[in-house]
Every structure is written in structure tokens, then in C-alpha cells.
User: Fold this.
Amino acid sequence: MDILVTLGRTLGFSLAAGVNLYATVALLGLAARFDWVTLPPQFETFNNPWIIGIAAVLYVVEFLADKIPWVDTLWDSVHTFVRPVGGALIAVASLGEASPTVAGLVALLGGTVAASSHLTKASTRVAANASPEPVSNWVLSLLEDIFVLGLGFITLQYPLAALAVCVVLLGVLLFAARWIWRRLRRRSPVPS
Assistant:
């Protein structure tokens, strides 16, 4: 059962980090600092006031940047490299003591999950920016914030439920990516 709880925390926090790394880190830090839930000792890393403060400030910057069309796309472009690494580091932190091989595998898992949620977020934002109405950016941004905080709280309180949510969401992302890929292949001309 412990392995499923760890996997739930790994996937939950990594998926959330791919959408908003700073909110995820701030939430982990605040939960550790104020004992909202009993976290494993390995999450004490996030209990540092500097980490909480920097994550909170960067979350505010991201919150504002996400509301401005095309600024959000530029922000997401820069974070294409940052969020997967952050997801990998959070995943490794969720392990605690582990062999280098297991830590490496979990880092790959966390980075991949964070990258998939990040790429989904970034591509959705590009599509929203192409629409003529200005409201979709605000709505998407607020939904992303609610998603990250909601998934973070579920992951903190109910890691097994977070595992189920993440498996379903990752399955949907995989199905959608496969569907898009097939549609693109049908539209591309066949080389002669």
C-alpha cells in the first residue's frame, strides 16, 4: 500500500507541477510548514521559508502573466524546460530514501508526467490565444489554478484518490494525443 501512496503523491504533484510549478511548490511548502497534513519527512525540503517565499512570488508573477494573451505563451515557452525538471525533482523528493536506479526512474516518470501536462496546457493556451474573444484566457487561467490547487489538496489528503485521478487524466491525454496524431497523418500528403 505504501508504494501506491508514494506513486499517488509522485504522479499528483508532478502532474500539478506541469501546469503550475510554483503553486505546487508553495502548496507543498505551506502544507509542511503549517502541518496541514502529516507529510513524510522527505517533504521537509519544501518547508524552507525561502523556498515558500520564492515560490509564492513566482506564483503571483505567473498568475498575472497567465491572464495576458501571448505573454502566457511566452511564459509557457520558457517553462517548457523548467516545469518538467521541477516535476522530476518533486517526484524524487516524494520518494525519500531510494537507490539511485529507483530515484532515476522516478525522476523520469515525474518529468514525463510534468512535461505531458505542461505541453497540454501550453498548446491549449496557444489555441485560446488564436480565438478573437478575450475571455478564454482568463477562464483557462483560473481553471488551471483551481485544478493545480485542487489536485494538490487531493494529493496531500488522499494520495490514492490522486493516483486514480492522475491515471484517468494521463489516459485521456494519451488518447487525445493519439487521436490528434492520426488526424494530422491523414491530412499530410503521402510522399511519392
About this structure: The mean pLDDT is 88.
